[in-house]
Every structure is written in structure tokens, then in C-alpha cells.
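Example record

The entry below shows one chain as it appears in the dataset: sequence first, then C-alpha cells.
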Amino acid sequence: MRHALFLALLVPAMATAQPLPRPGLDPAAEEARHAVDIRQPPWSSLVRVQTEAGTRCTGVLIAPDRVLTAAHCLVAPQTGNPVLASRTHVLAGYDRGDFQAHARVRAIRLGPGFDPAARGPIGADWALLRLAAPLPGPVLPRAALPMAATPAMLAGWQQDRAHALLADTACQVEGRFRDPGLRWLIRHNCAATRGSSGGPLLVRQGDGWAIAGIAAGAQRQARGGLAVALEGLDLD
């Protein structure tokens, strides 16, 4: 109850980040998503990122005090400026209004070349959050740049069911390419809508899962989207 009250005080008017689509996915995309247990790996490595400017997205722990998410999630809707680190919060174990732990952000590093006013380019649409305190939950490793037809998963707290973690666990990588800035992007056919920005595109690595990319954009009302590949990113 204390956690639920804190959440209500933190974001009285919950807005969603761009550019992932409005709800109303086609039936195939709707059917592809289902609720997953935030207490079980790899989902226990996902966190909810929200700001006092009213944006919220998904993120993933790559260290107890470091989170990857999408840069456009950290742009204030009213001003087009980056939000302050001190007004950014990360919730671990979030499920239906309650959560296991909360941490404030002490520093934000946006992807090099990201223009907050333009919310792009998509190849630079990633951000590294350094937390003021570590969060519980396992961290996920990075994956090598995946090939087409690699099985994948994508999850997030999405606009149409914002308080439950929804995942497409039966999708795949469709291809990879470089943008004009020579940054790697991954095309996938995972179903998602707004709120899943910043969520990790997961691929198999050994007996577990690893992060191939960070969700940055999706097709409207259909399965599929783009993720910024971790290949070549400076995450130290």
C-alpha cells in the first residue's frame, strides 16, 4: 500500500512516451502478447522508468546501479528538453501498482547524437541511467549482434495494460542494418505498443537470455519494430 501511494503521488497524470503506437493492435499482435511474472527471470531484470514530467517507459538492469532505456522516454513533453536526473525514478518488481524497490537516478547519459527536440534519430535513441542506489534483481548480459531468424522476446509496461508486464515471447529478429550514422539497428516482428520503449530485445545466450537491443520504435497497430543494437555502444 505504501508503494502504491508513492506511485500515485509521483505521477498524478501518467503520460506515455513517443514514438511507439496508440493502443489498438491488430488481432494477431494482440494475441501475441501475454502477461509474464515479474518475479521470474529474465523478467525480474526489467524495471519501470518514469519521470516527474509525466513520461514512463521500460528499462533493463545491466548492473545493480545501471539501467538501459530509450532516450525519448527522458524528454519532457511540454518543453522538449531532457528531464533532470533528480526527477527520474526507477521501480523494480513493478506489478499492478506495487513494486519491490525504488531508486532515484543520479546521472543520465543520452545516446551520442540524440536530439531531444526531434526525439531522434532512432539509432541514437538509447540512454544509460546511473542510479543513486542499487536495485535488487539479476542483471542481464549483452548479446552479440543477432542474425535474421534469431528467436527473440520483447516485454514492457504497455499503454493499454500499463500496470502489468506484457511480453511477446515467440517473435524473432528479421534483420539488422546501419543507419546513416553507421549505428546498428535491429528489425524484429515482436508485438508491442507505447510504454514498451526502452525494453530489452532478448535473445538466447547459453542457458539464459541476453540483451541484443533496446526497443525504440514500433509499427502502428501491427507486430514489428526497431531496436537500437547494443553492438558498438559505450555502456561503461
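Notes for this example: The CA atoms of residues 136 and 203 lie 22 Å apart. Helices lie at 2-10, 27-32.
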